[in-house]
Backbone:
């Protein structure tokens, strides 16, 4: 009887006994910090949006300018994240597998978007890719700046470090003997890459994609200078929120922010589910 009682109490215990003290204090601090930084602002956002009612909310959701701004923001962020997955993975592979002069300089330059103010990057891109810029003039009459193509370029710049720094540590842990064993068993280079290396890198690549995508969706500073901010063409959702705030339409601004929040949560949930499936599929837990 005593043993069954002890087993039941152990089953319903909040935490398992640990030699490291401070669980209650650290859990309380974590929940308080999470509430102040994330939960309370989101609750305020939803509460302010609720003032519109369902009819007002769906009126903003169905507005063509809002739909186009959301399409530009999420479409360009998705395209930039996909491009960063390809070239970020290649760059991480080069920095991990090869030794060459200037390698450390290139490795340090990967982190430049973290240190460089986004507005400076936006001004630089707008100057380079404008119709009379050094690069933009080479592609005339095809315009890059002040179009969604310019937005994609800016988002590639600010999202590349997320992919490289997420994939690079995992690549460093892959032993070269794995590649040599695959070659010994008759695998060619493409089979080694796609059947041996990429399955183990898939969770890290998906994580880098999610980080780059989330960063691109909310980007403002580096985009507004090269986007042109033309309604229905190159206007992004964060700029539309700022416009609504300047019009003192706070409920409209929070409604657009709520729509962005819901779409972002849905897309990140799908990415996390794919990532979990990939880990189970290839045995990485």
Residues:
């Amino acid at each position: 009887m005593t043993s069954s009682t002890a087993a039941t109490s152990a089953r319903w215990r909040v935490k398992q006994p640990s030699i490291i003290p401070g669980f209650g204090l650290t859990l309380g601090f974590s929940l308080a910090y999470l509430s102040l930084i994330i939960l309370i602002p989101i609750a305020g956002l939803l509460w302010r949006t609720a003032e519109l009612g369902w009819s007002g909310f769906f009126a903003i959701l169905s507005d063509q300018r809002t739909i186009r701004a959301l399409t530009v923001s999420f479409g360009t962020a998705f395209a930039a994240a996909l491009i960063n997955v390809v070239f970020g993975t290649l760059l991480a592979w080069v920095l991990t597998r090869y030794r060459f002069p200037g390698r450390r300089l290139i490795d340090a330059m990967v982190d430049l978007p973290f240190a460089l103010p986004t507005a400076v990057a936006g001004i630089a891109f707008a100057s380079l890719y404008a119709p009379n810029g050094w690069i933009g003039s080479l592609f005339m009459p095809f315009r890059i700046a002040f179009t969604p193509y310019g937005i994609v370029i800016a988002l590639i710049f600010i999202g590349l470090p997320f992919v490289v720094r997420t994939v690079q540590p995992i690549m460093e842990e892959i032993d070269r003997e794995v590649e040599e064993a695959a070659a010994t068993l008759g695998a060619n280079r493409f089979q080694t890459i796609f059947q041996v290396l990429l399955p183990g890198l898939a969770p890290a690549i998906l994580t880098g994609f999610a980080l780059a995508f989330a960063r691109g969706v909310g980007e403002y500073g580096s985009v507004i200078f090269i986007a042109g901010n033309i309604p229905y063409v190159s206007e992004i959702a964060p700029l539309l929120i700022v416009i609504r705030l300047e019009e003192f339409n706070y409920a409209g601004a929070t409604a657009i922010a709520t729509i962005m929040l819901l779409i972002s949560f849905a897309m990140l949930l799908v990415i996390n589910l794919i990532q979990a499936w990939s880990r189970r599929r290839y045995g990485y837990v």
About this structure: The two ends are 38 Å apart (CA to CA). Residues 64-97 form the longest helix (34 residues).
